[in-house]
Structure formats: C-alpha cells, structure tokens
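ARCHIVE CARD
Drawer: 12
Card no.: 0347
Subject: one protein chain, sequence and derived structure
Cross-reference: see card 0346
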Amino acid sequence: MHSGTKLLPLLLLACIGRVAAEAPPAPPQPSVQSLAWLAGCWASVDGEAGSGETWTAPAGGTLLGIGRTVKGGRTVAHEFLQIRENQPGQITLTALPSGQKEASFQLLRLTEREVVFENPQHDFPQRVLYRLTGRDQLLGRIEGRRDGEVRGVDFPLKRVDCETLAAP
C-alpha cells in the first residue's frame, strides 16, 4: 500500500474533527433569568389610574405577576400570573384571570426583547406575548381564534414607579 493512501483516512479524520470543533456552540437554553426585563411595575397606557401589571424579579425559577383593570375608580378585573421554569429550557406561563379557569401556555419563543407563550387547545387566547418596545415601553398582547376569526388585543404598558401604579 502506498504511504499516501495510508495518510488519507488520517487526513479525513483530522478535517472532520476540525469542522466539528469550528461548529457554533448550541444556543443557551431558555431560562426565566432571561426575562429580567419584565420585572417591575407597568401602567396601562390607555387605562385608568391603577390599571396595569406588576412582575417580580426572577428568583427560584419563577416570575410572579399580577394584573389589575380599574374603571370608574373600582377594580373590575384582575389576573394572577406565574412564569415558571419547570425543567431547564421548559418554561410555562400560568394565568388565573378573575372569573375564569386557570390556563397554562408553553414557551414558544424567547428573545432579548420578546417572549411568546402558546396553548393551541385553549379557547381564547391561544397565544400570549410580551414585547419590550422601548426602554420603558412594553406591549402585552393576546391573540388567537374566537368564533372562527383571528383576533388580537394589545395592552400597551409603560414602566412606572410602583407607588405610582398603586396611586388612585
């Protein structure tokens, strides 16, 4: 056997090893820590004073949130929210709106400025998203099908001091 043919398999292995070593690293798994931008108090842009959402900082694999809608000086709706990291990379949003059953949505997409959760089996909404649209601006949105039609409802929010959100 010619010495050049003995080297060929070794060269091929070296090239394959080099290509594997140069492959980009796998992206990090999603984590609730990546949602630190959501923490704080957010007032409804279009709502009455006291309307908005408050989110805790991520800790222990969770973010906890509460939403309130005020009309005519009275709370007319509220919602308890939890974003939980069930396992590494597996994140769930659980919502308990006033007068409705608890619903859970699985993480669909997470970027530096947006998180999207989805539950195709839920009546409405099937999708919940939060998008940071500016340093102190957040868009909450629910969307999906209702009565056969695609619908979406936007909730524009602005970051405020938590005492401001609580003020009547």
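Annotation on reverse: Residues 32-166 form a domain with the Lipocalin fold (CATH 2.40.128.20). The longest helix spans residues 3-22.
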